Amino acid sequence: MGSELINQAAVMVLLSEGPGGERVLLTRRAEHLNQHAGEIALPGGKWEPADPDLLTTALRETHEEVGIPPWKVEVLGTLPAAYTRRGVKVTPYIGRVAHDVELVANLEELDEMFWIPIEFLKQDKRKRTDRYQHLGQVFWAPAYVYEQHLVWGFTARVLVELLRVHYGVVLQAPEGAC
Which keywords label this protein (predicted)? Predict the structure, then answer.
């Protein structure tokens, strides 16, 4: 592997048990960043040449951003790769961590970390549905407000796939969207 991973990235969809059931970790990107400032995201980032594969990328970035070392993540599988609106191909990996795992935010990259309950996502209380086109296809993503956080775009699309693949919950797409 190597050059074929240029312009690719990986994220880690971290699951853990919490009060009220299973939950997934989300982050709020720091306001001072040049790209995606203030957006809600999953831990992860761009592939680097020192990474032998995208799983290594996801685990490395998770450790850098939220302080969870790779050996504390039980990797459960992957979700289908998807493209961001900027054309970056991103592979999401699903992992599980202990309910009491210590989180340490890298303040150079993040302003905040929080857990969102899977049950909240299953209820599909979206505030809106965003539609967009990529390579001639129409795609969609829900937009949720959880506490004061707006979860939308690529992150919301990954969460929809998590619900479908890992939990068997299929959210309704708007007519004519993939």
Answer: Hydrolase, Magnesium, Manganese, Metal-binding
